[in-house]
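Deadline looming. Please check this record:
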Amino acid sequence: MLSSSLQATLAGRFGTSEYGLSKKAGEDLFFEYGEQTGAPVFVYRFPNMMGHSKPNYNSAVSTFAWAVANDQPYTVNDPTTVVELVWIGDIVEGMLDLLEGCPHRCEYPKTGEMVDGVEYDGLTPRPDPAGHFCYIPTTHKVSLGEIVDLLKSFKEQRTTLNMPKMPAGSFAKKLFSLYLEYLRPEELKYALKMNVDNRGSFTELVHYPDAGQISVNVSKPGVTKGQHVHLSGKWEQFIVVKGRALIQERNINTGEMVEFEVSGDKIEAIFMCPSWTHNIINLSDTEDLVTIMTCNETFDPNHPDTFFLPV
């Protein structure tokens, strides 16, 4: 297996690359060796690799991640510049596929060449089971500006609690993992705002701007919390993880009422639906009640959609 470079295509901006010429010469020697000996050869033209590496060396992504994580200066000459990146985890998966006899083979059509109605740019692999080259199926094309903006949002997360969107397999998910690797040990911990009163405490843990928030509620012995209703589509889930509680809900339109006795010994999730006023009562005289609460929207103090109404 030969680790080559996308620069060996000598296409586009790599047309005058001395590095690309040397990589291309290495590929030719490798293919020649395969022809002479009959040994199977596998040549991968990797784009820019992305993973934990030394900052201020040969990876702009590592440099940016380290700099943002550690409050160090950095320079982005042109934020619109687009780079193609391959994550080290995806490379490892590709190498495992190769070892298991299932390499992803391809060819590199020349610039302007039309294949099956698609015009190629000389840099993009075309899957081909009989191809000379191999490739990693998953790469990401992103601008330098997008990378830095994401890193800034990761930095702000501990203040805003807003977790950026990170779908499975996304570039953002991989970049956040890389960012965390560059945090100083003392930065691994950060304080959350506890709202404390004589009834206990309520602490927001994390916000998902497109999906709501997760919080933890602590109720002192005998305390009743809630006694309110949401009218504009807000709903919650109460999940008792420690202690014993009685959850009561009443439909303000029909008068129907339900009660649930729950315990941290048998963890269950209970929905608090719109138009149902609800509460949660700590049934213990001695033990705090700990409840994880999820909500389908982040709390907006200007539009709280929370109206006092006893069950």
